[in-house]
Design a protein that fits this description.
Blueprint (H helix, E strand, L loop, with lengths): L1 E10 L2 E7 L4 E5 L6 H13 L18 E10 L2 E10 L2 E7 L2 E3 L11 E4 L5 H4 L2 H15 L1 H21 L4 H44 L6 E6 L6 H14 L1 H7 L10 E6 L2 E2 H4 L2 H23 L4 E5 L7 H10 L5 E5 L11 E5 L7
Parallel strand pairs: 3-13, 3-14, 8-12, 12-13
Antiparallel strand pairs: 1-2, 1-4, 4-5, 5-6, 6-7, 9-10, 10-11
Amino acid sequence: MFVKKLNLKNFRNYEREEFDFSDGLNIICGRNAQGKTNAVEAVFLLATGYSPKVKRDKQVIRYGERSAEISAEAITSYGAVSAKIEYFADANKSVTVNGQETKKVSDLLGNLFAVFFNPGELKLVQESPEDRRRFLDISISQLNKQYFSALSVYKKILNQRNNLLKNPDKSVIFDTLPVWDEQLSVYAADIIGARRDYVKKLAPFCKEAHSFITDGKEDLEVSLVGKYADTKEEIYENIKTALAVNMEKDVILGYTTVGPHREDLKITVSGEDVKNYGSQGQQRTAAISLKLAELNVYKEHFGEYPVLILDDAMSELDLYRQKRLLKAIDGVQTIVTCTHVDQSLYDADYKTFKIDGGKIV
């Protein structure tokens, strides 16, 4: 799969611009704060509905404007696909997929596929379990719409359960909790089961990618931290039992202490926890290896690679690892952003877009 065209209208600092990408390596270069990251953010938004930069939709609308629009055309092995998102300052956004308008962001999933990496993605290995769960959720949702739906419902039920736990009337809590726990366990089993399956596929690709980038000098292992069983039925029973066992603790604390919202992804390099004991170089390489593994999981699932976005990511690696990374992604449509093009680094043909003040110059 490759993104052929990207159109931006009143998006971030772009008034109106069109990118005509090649199916290989594309380099978006320019000084800082000119709009390089804004362009690749739009590609990721059209693939996932998720922004790696902001939480509120209205923040993407160009200053002084009332609406913004981003759209893309892509070529896949199944034919041409298109996606468009319109953002409004005073209304909900509108999504159009292959010419059909919808209000559901989930309808974007399964059309364009993208893997995104920038220096902020180092949170995957450096910071909280929430960042690693977000990585899993975004990645799995592109593969499985049912997972996205289950996750959305689970979060709503979890929020309702947590609100109930704060009720001053304890009798109401203990009378009502079993109802919420039954529903929570059903969706929790779907989520945990899907994460188990995904990490089993991801782990060997992570090991392979990391070994390639480090020339076999380091060994990367990835696994889910959790005590749940393997089958969905057993996970359901485990969660339901754990919720009952921890009921009084949850009431005291005022929040739910067990479930997929508490899971974590364990990442080790040569047997050591990379978060606590890895150098910055090892942490960067581990994070990039996770993203390269994503590419291969998608390739295995769909029969073709997604677009890879490397937003100011090359500067995070030494020259040797930069070259190894570029060799690893040969044959994958890649969009790289950088402040300048190091011609000695790029052996293959590439297309360059120079950005200045939200315009291709």
